[in-house]
């Protein structure tokens, strides 16, 4: 269970649209992300869901369908109250928002990553928009257990219309949110966010 401070920080992030900065476009990248849009998840029942795990910090994230195998850093809140993003570096990694549930706990666990990293090329979540319903995401946790999620929806939304309630809102089962940038370039950034929604399908000790 998160502490009262963590719950307050999580609520603060939920009230502010998460405008993920992605470090600028890679030279030669197209102006739009690959088409990926399915309806957002609507089910909130925990029926048929895998049993929730105890809290344990994620240390690695694997997404076989798009060849992602990354270590995971911890992210907090920036000075303006928005969620921090991972640093823009070559061989970048994903970052877990530490005021959200850990993967496998009841609630929406939030992990961010860049689509591009300046002149260094593709970011760790460059191909996130290619994911499709049912594809597998594995979060490996500090205590040695793993939480396996199945993609339920992929949405590309304007940053100005970031769906904070859908991303941060209460759910009664373990869920996962992966977030990056996408859509048309706007100067050195992107106009949209790509958001992957996933639910816990299995666990391992």
Number of domains: 1
CATH topology: Sortase, Chain: A
Give Rg in angstroms: 16 Å
What is the SS-derived class? mainly beta
Q: What is the CATH architecture assignment?
A: Beta Barrel
Largest beta-sheet characterization: 8 strands, mixed, barrel
Low-confidence stretches: 1-8, 14-19, 23-48
CATH top level? Mainly Beta
- The CATH superfamily label reads Sortase
Globular, elongated, flat, extended or rod-shaped: what is the shape? Answer: globular
* Strand/helix succession: HEEEEEEHEE
Strand content: 35-45%
Q: How many helices? A: 2
The strand order across the widest sheet is 1-2-3-4-7-8-6-5
Ends apart, CA distance between termini:
19 Å
Number of separate strands: 8
| Mean pLDDT across every amino acid position | 81
- Helical amount among residues, as a percent range? under 10%
Tell me about this structure.
Helix content is 8%, strand content 35%. With 205 residues, it is mainly beta. The protein has a single domain, classed as Sortase (Sortase, Chain: A, Beta Barrel). It has an eight-stranded mixed barrel. A hairpin with a 2-residue loop joins strand 7 and strand 8. The radius of gyration is 16 Å and the shape is globular. The two termini are 19 Å apart. Residues 1-8, 14-19 and 23-48 have low confidence and may be disordered.
